[in-house]
Every structure is written in structure tokens, then in C-alpha cells.
Design goal:
21% strand; Arc Repressor Mutant, subunit A; 6-stranded antiparallel β-sheet; Jelly Rolls; 10 helices; 4-stranded antiparallel β-sheet
């Protein structure tokens, strides 16, 4: 039977980058997982042994990759994949599932995508740091969420800097300026009845072009980001205050409580009241 460690990250709200689950496993010969798809980004690092990854590329075509010790592979949201341990030298791997508004950007900087999901190290010392950070997260699940998120950032930094496919960050481009302006406008006005047109207008762009560069930069449409931001603020209020559901909905831009509850359930899968109960929030 396989040896493994598996942990689910507590429901805390980290908008830029957040953890979902992480673990380690020494697989049995021919142990397989899938075919399946994930909702978030999932990175595996092979510590020893070998195995096979079968994953759909950007065109939906199944491609097979041989993964050996020291290499890794990235799985993308909604991508169908299967991975199988070698029959003679089964792999041992560590994994981290994460997501957030900066996830797409960081993965692109590492040079990984659905057509090129295999990680190979250019710099062994930095790759060793990456492995250390992954194992630290797995072996310190009792630490605070903020502590673990700090190590997630160190893992991401090492992944990007060590990857043989790493891209040069353009940074400080006019596009970056527009995205930061949009973030700023949403942060200051999310509680109001704002539209995508208003956000684009604030940035001095037409809606079509604004929507295009926003999605390319974040992986989300402006409307998806606005909803996600509002729901994150809503969970903070649910957990830290005794405000009523109606008052919280109004505070994050939903004057109609029914509309707020419906939007919240679409994101978290449960009602605001249930979320508050399950996460130790304050009641009236």
C-alpha cells in the first residue's frame, strides 16, 4: 500500500495566491490517478523513481510524457489527465494545489503551459530550494495559514527562477499599469453598483480591449474578478463581524439579499449562513 501525507488548506482568503491542498506519496508499482480534471493549478515534483503523465494539450489532444526524478509537471484547471507510477521504479512525489489572481502569470513566467507542462530544472541549487519549500509546507500543516502562504510564495519564486523554460518578465508595461488601475478602482468601489464599462472608462480604455488584456493578465474576466473580490470581502465580514447576511450583502455591492446569497453560493457552493457556521464566524 502507498505511503502518503495529505492535507487540505483551511478556508482563508488569499486573493493573489492561495493554497488548496498539498501532500506527499510514495506510490505502489503501477499506481494510477485519473482520468480526472482539477479546478485549480496542481504541481507535482518527482523526488525519486519515474512515471507517466497523460494530459490534454491546448487543442484537447492527449499527449504522453515520461517524468523522472528531479522533474515535475503542472496540471491546469479543467484539463483532463492521468498519471501512472512505473511498474518497476514507482515514483515518489510531492504536490501543491494552488490558485489565485497571480497564478496564471507566475506559471507563464515559469514557461509552463498545457502544451509544455513538464518542469525541468536549469539551476539545481534553486530547484533544491523549491523542493525544500514544498516539503516544508507538507510537513508543517499545523502552522498558521499566513506562515504557509509565505512558503507558497518562496516555492513559486524558486519554481520560476529554476525552470529551464523560464520567461523574462516584461514588467512595468503600459498593460501592467492599466491592470493596476483596474485593481485600484475595484478595491475602492466594490461596494457600489459598478460595471465593467465604468472600470474600463476609469482606465481610459474601451470595454472590449480592456476585457481582453484583463483576461490575458489574470485568467479571469473583469466581471469574474469583481465577483471574486466581493465574495472574498464577504467572507471576511462573515467571519469577523456580527453583521446580518443582508447587511453584509449590501456592504459588498448586493442590495438584494437573495442576489447576494445566490452569488455567494455560486462561488463557495454553500450559503453565506452555512459558511459562517462552518468557519467559526460571529452570529448576531
Amino acid at each position: 500500500m502507498s505511503d502518503f501525507i495529505y492535507s487540505v488548506f483551511p478556508r482563508e482568503n488569499f486573493v493573489d495566491l492561495g493554497l488548496y491542498q498539498f501532500g506527499w506519496e510514495q506510490c505502489d508499482p503501477s499506481h494510477s490517478f485519473g482520468p480526472a480534471a482539477r479546478n485549480h493549478y496542481l504541481f507535482h515534483l518527482c523526488l525519486s523513481g519515474t512515471g507517466i503523465l497523460m494530459a490534454d494539450n491546448a487543442k484537447g489532444e492527449a499527449v504522453t510524457y515520461q517524468i523522472k526524478s528531479g522533474q515535475g509537471f503542472m496540471l491546469f484547471p479543467h484539463q483532463i489527465c492521468t498519471y501512472i507510477a512505473d511498474r518497476d521504479i514507482p515514483w515518489e512525489y510531492v504536490w501543491i494545489e494552488f490558485d489565485g489572481l497571480r497564478a496564471k502569470e507566475t506559471i507563464e513566467l515559469a514557461g509552463l503551459n498545457q502544451d509544455q507542462p513538464v518542469y525541468k530544472a536549469r539551476y539545481k541549487d534553486i530547484a533544491e530550494t523549491m523542493k525544500t519549500e514544498m516539503l516544508y509546507i507538507v510537513n508543517h500543516k499545523e502552522e498558521s495559514p499566513f506562515h504557509l502562504i509565505g512558503h507558497l510564495y518562496l516555492f513559486i519564486d524558486s519554481l520560476v527562477r529554476s525552470s529551464v523554460h523560464a520567461q523574462i518578465s516584461k514588467g512595468n508595461s503600459l498593460r501592467d499599469f492599466y491592470i493596476k488601475e483596474a485593481f485600484s478602482f475595484i478595491e475602492q468601489n466594490f461596494q457600489n453598483d459598478i460595471s465593467v464599462e465604468e472600470i474600463a472608462s476609469f482606465c481610459g480604455l474601451n470595454r472590449s480591449y480592456f476585457g481582453k488584456i484583463f483576461h490575458e493578465s489574470t485568467g479571469k474576466s473583469p466581471q469574474e474578478f469583481l465577483i471574486s473580490y466581493r465574495m472574498t470581502k464577504a467572507t471576511e465580514l462573515l467571519k469577523l463581524t456580527g453583521l446580518s447576511i443582508a447587511d453584509i450583502g449590501n456592504a459588498v455591492g448586493y442590495p438584494n439579499q437573495l442576489h447576494f446569497s445566490r452569488a455567494f453560493k455560486n462561488v463557495y457552493g454553500i450559503s453565506p449562513r452555512t459558511w459562517r457556521y462552518e468557519n467559526g464566524g460571529r452570529n448576531m
